Amino acid sequence: MPTIKDVAQKAGVSIATVSRFLNGSGYVSEEVKLKLIQVINELGYKRKYTAHILASRKKRKVAMVISERIKQLLNTDIGYFYKVIVESIQQNAETFHFEISLLDLRRVEKFDGYLLIGSDALEQDVQEYKRLGKVVLVDHHVEGLMVDSVVSAGADAATFLVNRFLEMGKKRIIHVHGPLKYYGFRDRYQGYVNTMQKYGLLPITFEYDDLHDDIEPVVKKILANYEPDVIFCSNDVIALRVMEKLKAFGYEIPKKISVVGFDDIPEAERLGLTTFHVDKYEMGVTAVRRLYDLLVGHNVQPRKICLHAYFVKRNSSL
User: For FRET with 246, which of 45, 185, 231, 306 sits at 20 to 30 Å CA-CA?
Assistant: First the structure.
């Protein structure tokens, strides 16, 4: 049977790195995580878990519910966030004796449990799945609905960012966000707005749909009406597009304007984008563990699990 040492050797990393990855106990780059997932699957490595998990040999049928929109995004830069979450769920499912099936959001079928990925599910969708089995939302939370969810702490990240730049004397902080019907964008937006208002500053926001809109009119409008110190974007894809346009218009980054994203996709590191790192793999693992607890009757009180994102300073900001 393959060991953790075998995994480390084949992946070309240290045993400590593999251990951090398996335990979610420290930083491992997204590139290395994906490499480790591949190696673990190739070797058939099985992680040792606690006795109560190993003792429960019953296979449980679990649906990973994904909307058509997210399904189409999985192999794009925009969908990288969800790609890692999906691979994390698939890689950890066997350990908890889950038999995973992919289910379209609009096809409601009976399973033991459901992992609803992304924010496309409406409240009535969540209620319908909840009626049929145990449910955990991933990167989604429905306010006022008592259902388990695993999310990144986007509002806290936005608060940290505003505080950081205010301490540097940079008050003209503009937020470019995705459609607010999606929880993650709404959470970061609210954190930004609340923190700006706390200090008596006017929040300045622009909505931009990274799937359908052209970023140039947004950037032109910002530059024509404001003199921003910082442009904080609700994901890295938006931030990289903003950064590209600013450079095309002759603005020095970060000397003239700082640009900050959120997610920490591989392109962010390659292009020097300051951002917030979200442990996408750990979100998937946490969701699987939480669903397991619900299915075996452990800690059944619904909870919202927030994983903090941490600030990664690179060349695009002061």
Answer: 185
For range 42-53, the mean pLDDT: 63
Looking at residue 184, its amino acid is G
- Largest separation between any pair of C-alpha atoms in the chain: 64
The answer to whether 208 and 178 are in contact (CB under 8 A) is yes
- Predicted local distance difference test score (pLDDT) of residue 50: 45
- pLDDT tens per residue, range 241-273: 999 999 999 999 999 999 999 999 999 999 999
Just give the CATH number of 154-277: 3.40.50.2300
For domain 51-151+279-307, give its CATH number from 3.40.50.2300, 3.40.50.720, 3.40.50.300, 1.10.8.640: 3.40.50.2300
pTM for the full predicted model: 0.85
Tokens, residue 234: 């609700």
- As assigned by CATH, the class of the 1-48 domain is mainly alpha
Integer Cα distance of 35 and 99 in angstroms: 23
DSSP bridge partners of 62: 100, 113
